[in-house]
Specification:
Rossmann fold; FAD/NAD(P)-binding domain; five-stranded parallel sheet; 30 strands; alpha/beta; 557 residues; 31% helix
């Protein structure tokens, strides 16, 4: 005979986040009336040390074999409560979480009764599902203790060295014939005033001195198969293919600078980009008496709505360079908004003003006009149009996504945002991880970043990647797709084609073509189960019985 189901329900006040908008006492009393519930506790903060201890004590004293917590988002707190159950010697997957903060109190702040009633429904459904939960064990897979970094710019080099100096074997793949990326085209770095190309060359030499780093230049990634701990990579170097295995991958492919064709009369001679200006600095060919810089050239418009973040400081840095080289050269910066965050950047902005750099704001409805050596701009504060003499116009154009991003995103099964930059798993919780386990990102591949930011992100990505590498074994949650009816599976491959994580494959068995679940790669998203018209697949913590019981519980009110 199966053990008696004994469910404990813990309802969280969350300070005023929940109790300020819902009748939590009523919810706790209601939970006591639900089937199989033998213990109910209202907590001020269930996630606090005292709340955690109350759960542990109740599991032991009340002999609970299921736990339901009604509080906030599972995204942030479910791992904590599962760990709490495990510490109390209860299988962590006999835990169910009900989100009454995000789904009730936060969205029904002005509707206390209606929000409370909705929370009652969710708790009743959570308890119904909890009664059907079954114990599970985490899935383990061996970890290949090697890494690959795609991109040899400053972020890629920093990430490779961070891992290599810890003793991990790293393959650094760069499509150009040398390391350095965009830094090789720049003159000076602000606010340090370092020679950009020299700094890049120094970092490249440091990379070459790390014995555990294998450097592949003039190389592209042709194919990536597998999953965290067991990626199989195929690269091409000057037409020669190479195959190797890695456990984790870091994407540091950088970005490219927009070529402003058709903007402000761009010709690469008298109308140039900031990048081309820096090339003139390096070559010693800069000559101009009247310079006008136009910000947001191709950015913050309908086609490209984002701010590139670094353009303002690049313009200010280069304006200072001009004034220090040629104090009598006039420099105007036409801007919509100045992005000069941080004390050092603010100091550079002030320094530019002290040197005589003139800042003129313009509105998108009245953009500057460049014609015949004159830049016309409407000065909003003066309320009139200015005609600025110019023998050189410099356009501050944004970083745009790398040309290989779409190809790499398909190879790694990772997402891009609307601007084709790589998209992190979660902006707050997983800023350097992709949704696909074992793949990480940093630098301009993610979004426009300064050199300092790119290096910081690279070190963070390397730290994230080193976690599974150091363990040697990859452990993932067992909430995965399961082939529940092998006979029903026709091996059509539709689920394989639609799986966003590459966690399914078709194999030949004694019964013919059947789908096989690669459990360590599966994220339990449910796409395959929803797709399978034969109902051969199911998600083992969201079975038909469990979901059906939740629906019946909802309808029973």
């Amino acid at each position: 005979m199966a053990d008696e189901i004994r469910i404990g329900v813990f309802v969280c006040d969350c300070g005023s986040n929940i109790a300020g908008y819902l009748n939590v006492k009523e919810l706790a009393e209601y939970a006591k009336t639900l089937p199989n519930v033998v213990y109910v506790k209202e907590n001020l903060y269930t996630c606090s040390e005292s709340g955690i201890n109350e759960i542990k004590a109740a599991i032991k004293e009340e002999k609970l074999n299921r736990v339901v917590v009604a509080s906030c988002t599972p995204r942030t707190h479910e791992p904590l409560f599962r760990g709490t159950c495990e510490e109390a010697e209860l299988n962590p997957y006999l835990f169910e979480m009900v989100n009454i903060r995000d789904q009730c109190s936060w969205v029904h702040m002005q509707e206390r009764d209606e929000g409370t009633n909705k929370a009652r429904d969710l708790i009743r459904m959570g308890v119904a599902k909890a009664a059907l939960l079954e114990p599970k064990q985490n899935i383990e897979s061996k970890m290949d203790p090697r890494a690959m970094v795609i991109g040899g710019g400053i972020a890629g080099m920093a990430a490779a060295m961070a891992l290599g100096n810890r003793g991990y074997e790293v393959t650094l793949v760069e499509k150009a014939d040398t390391l350095g990326g965009l830094l090789l085209q720049l003159d000076k770095l602000a606010p340090s005033n370092l020679d950009a190309a020299k700094f890049a060359a120094q970092q490249a030499e440091l990379v070459k001195k790390v014995p555990s780093i294998r450097l592949l230049t003039s190389t592209t990634v042709k194919e990536v198969q597998g999953y965290i701990g067991n990626f199989k990579v195929t690269t091409t170097t000057n037409g020669v293919q190479d195959e190797f295995g890695v456990g984790v991958i870091i994407v540091a492919t950088g970005a490219q600078v927009l070529k402003p064709t058709g903007l402000y009369g761009y010709d690469g001679k008298n109308v140039i980009t900031q990048l081309e200006l820096e090339e003139r600095f390096k070559a010693g060919t800069f000559e101009a008496k009247h310079v006008v810089m136009i910000q947001c050239a191709g950015a913050r418009i309908e086609e490209r709505k984002y701010c590139s973040r670094v353009c303002c400081m690049v313009a200010i840095k280069n304006a200072i360079e001009i004034k220090e080289r040629s104090p009598f050269t006039t420099v105007h910066i036409l801007y919509r908004d100045i992005q000069a965050y941080g004390t050092e950047n603010e100091a550079l902005y002030q320094h530019a003003r002290e040197l005589g750099v003139l800042f003129v704001s313009y509105d998108l409805s009245q953009v500057p006009v460049v014609e015949n050596g004159v830049v016309k701009v409407f000065h909003q504060r003066l309320g009139r149009e200015l005609a600025l003499k110019s023998d050189l116009v410099v356009l501050s154009t944004p970083f745009i996504a790398g040309e290989d991003n779409e190809t790499i995103s398909k190879q790694l099964r990772v997402s891009l945002d609307e601007n084709k930059f790589f998209l992190e798993g979660h902006v707050k919780l997983k800023p350097l991880d992709f949704a696909t386990d074992g793949v990480y990102l940093c630098g301009n591949a993610h979004y426009p970043a300064t050199v300092r930011e790119a290096i910081s992100q690279a070190l963070g990505a390397a730290s994230r990647a080193s976690i599974p590498l150091s363990k040697g074994v990859m452990t993932v949650e067992p909430i995965v797709s399961t082939l529940v009816d092998e006979d029903a599976c026709r091996g059509c491959g539709l689920c394989v084609a639609l799986c966003p994580y590459g966690a399914l494959e078709i194999v030949r068995t004694e019964k013919g073509r059947k789908v096989r679940v690669i459990e360590v790669a599966c994220k339990g998203c449910g796409v395959c189960a929803a797709t399978c018209y034969q109902h051969a697949l199911s998600i083992n913590s969201y079975t038909d019985d469990q979901v059906g019981e939740q629906i019946r519980a909802f309808l029973s009110a």
